[in-house]
Every structure is written in structure tokens, then in C-alpha cells.
Amino acid sequence: MTEKLGVMVCGHGSRDQGAVEEFASVARGLTEKLPQFPVDYGYLEFATPIIRTGLDNLREQGVNRVLAVPGMLFAAGHAKNDIPSVLNTYAAGHDGFTIEYGRELGVDLKMIRAAGDRIREALDQAGGDVPLHETLLMVVGRGASDPDANSNVAKVMRMLWEGFGFGWGETCYSGVTFPLVEPGLEHAAKLGYRRIVVFPYFLFTGILIKRIYDYTDVVAARHPEIEFIKASYLNDHPLVIETFADRVREILDGANNMNCQMCKYREQVLGFESEVGLPQESHHHHVEGIGTGDDGGDDHGQQHHAHDHTHDHSHDHSHDHGHSHDHGDDHGHHHHPYPHADHPLGPESMKKDDA
User: Fold this and answer.
1) pLDDT score of 291
2) pTM for the full model?
3) Contact in structure between 160 and 116 (CB atoms under 8 Å)
4) CA distance from start to end of the chain
């Protein structure tokens, strides 16, 4: 039997018609990115078409191998359990029909750049002359009962905070976990920043987005001395659609999920664009081969045995790129200048007393 591939985007579903339309818009965008495949979509609940209907549509077009991806930012219960259950049940009921399931969008540099664009748009629209050092970024996640998913929001926040060079960054959540939006913003308001940017790290609109903005208004009314800026959620940003396309391609390519993908040398990390393509070399070459009797002046507080100190991550890179992660230690050589070296809360602040 000839193999015919199709793509299925599996969403959670929402009672909000706007969210349903936005999800459909992303699916249409994916059709343009992957013109070689039929693309369909469906939801777990609250909206139609359901996932089964989308799979029926693909099957009717002669598709017998489906590349399915979760239409979700992070892998919590829905992406880890509910969607695979629906897909497995469907595949089991249709002979000769296979479904392969890809990973969630996750913490991805394209997603970070899309988020950065939304924040930049909000800052440009707000105007004014408040420096980033006097601005706090509040990233709002969905909130899950899965701490792994929640911690990913915190990682996104850190990459945006550091990428822009905001004065401070905080994370809060719209539900399930803590801190929720109102207490999170109240805490942020105590930190003394002139401006707070509230950015919902969400794909689509819905009741939660409206609540996030409503709580922002409530806290802003209590703190007229602080300017609160509401950034837009991700929606159908071109880089979001491109990340969905990447997830589909990964299924075919057999993805290498090594976290070197997040490395500032490999792709444009927000704020570190100037370092793309720089040679990745170990900063430990000056201590390689030095025995335990001489620590070579290397201030790790650990003994260097005579081994090659280019860290093995205990998994196959499938390509040798000499990727030895330095420890951020200040050997004072070979380090590319850090873009926010003058951040008032950074290393410069330690030197004030030296003068």
C-alpha cells in the first residue's frame, strides 16, 4: 500500500469562539508552511471539530500515516495523556492507519522571539522614556498541576528578561498553581519599578486572557504611580506557525532533543544575536591534563583529573560540534562581551565599593 502522509494539529478546545477561530487560523498557516501534506485539526473538548473528525477527514483523503502534533505550549496532562489516548484509540480502530505523535512547542528560540516581538510591540505602543532597567516583566503562564510545565514558563520569562535587559522579571499563573495573577502583580508592584509589562505566554485568546487583563486593571488602579502595559498573547505569529512546522518535521527526521538547541551559539537567542556562529571552544584548555596536584589556578573548587574536560552530556549529538559548555566562570579570556554587562543589578553593581 502506498504511504500517504497527513498532518493533524490537536488542540485542547475552548468555549471562546475567538480562540477556536485563532486555532483554525494557525492550522491554515501550517497548511501554507507544509503544502506537501494535507493538514487538519481538531479539539479534545469544548469545540468542534473534535480530533476524531479531523482524523476522519484525513483518512477520506487517502492519508494512512498521520504526523500529529499537540497545539499546546507545554506538555502537561492534556499533551502527555489525553491527546495520545484519543490518537491511540483511533489508530487501533483503523487497520493500516498509523499515527505518530510529535512534541509540544516547548521552550523554543522561535517561540521566545515571537514572545519578544509581542513585548516589543507593547513597549513601542506605550512609548515614553522609561528605561528597560526601570521596567519589570511579568510573564503569565496558564498554570498546570504539573510543576515541569510551570517551570517552563519561568524559563521563558528568564530568557525574555535577560534578552531584553529588563530591571526585573517575575512569573505568575492564571490558574491551578501559584502565584496567581493578582497576588503576583501585587508582589511585583512592591519592588519599586516604574513600569510593569504584563505578557500572557498563551497561544490563543479566551476567558483566561480576559481575566489576566482584568486583574492587571485591578492592581493598576491600586498603584497609580506605576505604568502597567498589557502585551498581546502569541496568537498566529509567523514564528509560532514555523515552530509547529518544525515539530511536524521532527517526527520525520527523528529529532535530536538535546538542549544544545537552546545554546546561544547555535541560534539567535533574543538579545545575544551577535554571538551566533562564534566558534564554540572550551575555556578549559589551559587546565587539560593537569593532575590533581596542581589545580592550574582554575577556581572551580574541584580537582581536575587528567581527562579531557569537554563535558560529555551522555547522549549522542549525532554531529560533533565541539560543544563544551563553560561554567560561566570568569577566566578573563575568550569571553564574548555580555550584552547587559552594565545592568544595575549585575556585575557592575559589585564594583561600586571598589572605587
Assistant:
1) 53
2) 0.78
3) yes
4) 78
Q: How far, CA to CA in Å, does 105 sit from each of 42, 142, 283, 337?
A: 17, 14, 33, 31
d(CA 338, CA 352): 19
Let me know if the fold of 5-101 is the same as that of 109-230.
Answer: yes
Q: Report the SS3 class of residue 337.
A: coil
Can you give 94-114 as a three-state secondary structure string? CCCCEEEECCCCCCCHHHHHH
Residue 183 confidence (pLDDT) above 70: yes
Query: Which CATH code for domain 5-101?
Result: 3.40.50.1400
Greatest C-alpha distance within the chain: 78
| Residues β-bridged to residue 144 | none
Q: Work out whether strand 135-141 and strand 168-173 pair parallel, antiparallel, or are unpaired.
A: parallel
Average pLDDT along the chain: 84
Which CATH fold topology does 109-230 show?
Rossmann fold (3.40.50)
Domain ranges of the chain: 5-101, 109-230
Contact in structure between 195 and 186 (CB atoms under 8 Å): no
pLDDT in tens, 286-309: 545 555 444 444 444 444 444 444
128 phi-psi bin (left φ>0, alpha ψ -120 to 50, beta other): left
pLDDT value, residue 311: 45
The grid coordinates of residue 232 equal 498581546
